[in-house]
Amino acid sequence: MTANGSRKGRMKIKVNEDGPYTVSGGIPLSDQILVPDAEGLSVTWKEGKRYPVTEEYELCRCGHSKNKPFCDGTHCEIFFDGKETADRRPFAEQIEPKTIGPELILSDVVALCASARFCDRAKGVWDNTRASADPEAKKVAVQEVFDCPAGRLVLHDKNGNLLEPKLEPSIGLVLDPVVNQIGPLWVRGGIPIESADGFVYEIRNRVTLCRCGKSTHKPFCDGKHVDL
Questions:
Q1: Three-class secondary structure assignment of 198-209
Q2: CA distances from 99 to 57, 71, 117, 145 (A)
Q3: Which of 195, 201, 27, 175 shows the shortest CA–CA distance to 114?
Q4: Rounded Cα distance, 173 and 169, in Å
Q5: What is the dihedral of CA 135, 122, 205, 163, to 10 degrees?
Q6: Tell me: the pLDDT tens digits for 169-203?
Q7: Residue 55 backbone phi and psi in degrees, to 5
Q8: What is the pLDDT of residues 126-162, one digit of tens each?
Q9: Model pTM above 0.90
């Protein structure tokens, strides 16, 4: 096994009961900023600050740390209720009716929406999937899905091949200038997430974890940060 492979094998995010996320395995951490168009819809990502890579660190989950993105123990003072309420079924068992186009098939789990607003630009990913025989519509649909941090949206081609962006294991701290709020943790590249009771959620290429403390789908983001 290569050194990188060995390091990835150590990577994990542990959800602590009513406490922070413990991140282990030297996972890179950086600010990831949503870039909007004139209508406030997201069109791309811009990387901001990169944090020093350490073997282990704790990230705030309650939303009240004075040392964000890191935990400072405030969750104890406010008696944070971090009970995990997310559906533990695999993504494939939570899919709502699929959108089937001539070239692409779009799967959607609305409960995972992190309100990043990529899917609504250029007529929306659903219309672009339906029009995917047109090369431009297909290109836009793929990019809309690839930019979705939460993995709410997933594409397959007509042969059943999964279409996913190549993401290195890392964590992005989402910043949303349109609503002037911090967003979720964008967990990328198949990093295992272990619940407080030891359950390991389905390992996926991209998911978002709540860091405002208000999600009703903990530990995953459900977009509540945009209403703060």
A1: CCECCCCCEEEE
A2: 40, 40, 18, 13
A3: 175
A4: 14
A5: -20
A6: 999 999 999 999 999 999 999 999 999 999 999 99
A7: -60, -40
A8: 999 999 999 999 999 999 999 999 999 999 999 999 9
A9: yes
